[in-house]
Backbone:
C-alpha cells in the first residue's frame, strides 16, 4: 500500500524568499548575451530598471540618496549577506562584502555567469539616470563583493 | 542586486522584451532552453524518485514562493498534483500597478515542466483555464507503473 501525502500551503505560513530566482536571472543574462548580444542584455536590464522600480525612482526624486540607502538596507535585510553603507552629504557608498545572491548560487551549485553583476550595474544606472542621479558599480566577477557609489 | 523578491516582474519583462525583439517563438525558445539547461535539479530528483521527486521538489519551491496551494502525492496511483489556489508569481503581476502581465505568462510553467517530466516518461497535464485568477492545476502521473 503506497503512501498518500498532502501539504496545504498558505501564503501567510511562509516567507516569500525563493533565492533560486537569482539563478534564473543568471541564465537569462547568459541567454541574451549568447543569442542577442551584450547590447541586448543591457537594453533588457535598463527596461527592468524603468519598469519595476518606478516607486524607488519617485522616492529618490523626493528623498535623494536616503531613498537608495533605505532600499539597499531593505533588500539586504530580506536576503542576508554582509554590507556597509557610508552616507556623507552628496554621496552614498555601499560596500558589499558578501553578496547573498552569489553566495546562494554557489552554495546550491546553480547556474552562474560572470556577467551576473551587470544586473546590479545596469539596473542601478537606469534607476539613477531617470531620477537624475549618477552611480558606479565596480566588481570582480564571482567574488561576491562590489562597491556601489551614488551621487547627484 | 535585484532581490529575488523583485524577480518576477523582471522575468515578466524578459518575455515582453524577447517578444518585442523578435516574436513569441523567441519567448518559447527561451523557456525551452531554460527548461533544458536550468531545471537539472528537478530532472535529477524525478529521475531518482519518480512522482515522489515531484512532491519533494515542489514542497520546497512552493514554500519558498509562499504559494497558496495544495500538493498531493498518491503513491497508489503514482500521481502528483498541484492545485494552485493563488499563484504567487501571477498574483504578484496582477496586483502590481506598474506591471502588465505578459499575455502568455503562465505558459512558461507548462513548457518548463512538461519538457522535464514528459522526457522522463511521466504523463503531464496542466489546466491554465483559470490562470487569469492566478489559479491552475498540474498533474504528473507515471502511467507505466500499473495502478493499484
Residues:
Amino acid at each position: 500500500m503506497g503512501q498518500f501525502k498532502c501539504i496545504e500551503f498558505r501564503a501567510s505560513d511562509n516567507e516569500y524568499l525563493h533565492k533560486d530566482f537569482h539563478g534564473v536571472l543568471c541564465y537569462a543574462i547568459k541567454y541574451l548575451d549568447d543569442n542577442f548580444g551584450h547590447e541586448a542584455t543591457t537594453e533588457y536590464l535598463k527596461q527592468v530598471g524603468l519598469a519595476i522600480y518606478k516607486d524607488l525612482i519617485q522616492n529618490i526624486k523626493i528623498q535623494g540618496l536616503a531613498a537608495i540607502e533605505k532600499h539597499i538596507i531593505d533588500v539586504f535585510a530580506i536576503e542576508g549577506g554582509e554590507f556597509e553603507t557610508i552616507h556623507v552629504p552628496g554621496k552614498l557608498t555601499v560596500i558589499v562584502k558578501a553578496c547573498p545572491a552569489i553566495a546562494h548560487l554557489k552554495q546550491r551549485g546553480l547556474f552562474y555567469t560572470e556577467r551576473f553583476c551587470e544586473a546590479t550595474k545596469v539596473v542601478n544606472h537606469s534607476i539613477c539616470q531617470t531620477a537624475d542621479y549618477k552611480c558606479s558599480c565596480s566588481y570582480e566577477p564571482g567574488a561576491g563583493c562590489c562597491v556601489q557609489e551614488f551621487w547627484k | 542586486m535585484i532581490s529575488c523578491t523583485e524577480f518576477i516582474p523582471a522575468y515578466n519583462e524578459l518575455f515582453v522584451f524577447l517578444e518585442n525583439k523578435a516574436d513569441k517563438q523567441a519567448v518559447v525558445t527561451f523557456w525551452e532552453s531554460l527548461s533544458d539547461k536550468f531545471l537539472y535539479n528537478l530532472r535529477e530528483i524525478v529521475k531518482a524518485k519518480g512522482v515522489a521527486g515531484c512532491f519533494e521538489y515542489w514542497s520546497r519551491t512552493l514554500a519558498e514562493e509562499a504559494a497558496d496551494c495544495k500538493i498531493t502525492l498518491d503513491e497508489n496511483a503514482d500521481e502528483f498534483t498541484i492545485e494552485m489556489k493563488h499563484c504567487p508569481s501571477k498574483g504578484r503581476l496582477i496586483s502590481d500597478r506598474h506591471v502588465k502581465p505578459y499575455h502568455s505568462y503562465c505558459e512558461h510553467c507548462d513548457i518548463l515542466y512538461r519538457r522535464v517530466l514528459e522526457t522522463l516518461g511521466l504523463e503531464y497535464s496542466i489546466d491554465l483555464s483559470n490562470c487569469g485568477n492566478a489559479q491552475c492545476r498540474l498533474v504528473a502521473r507515471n502511467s507505466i507503473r500499473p495502478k493499484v
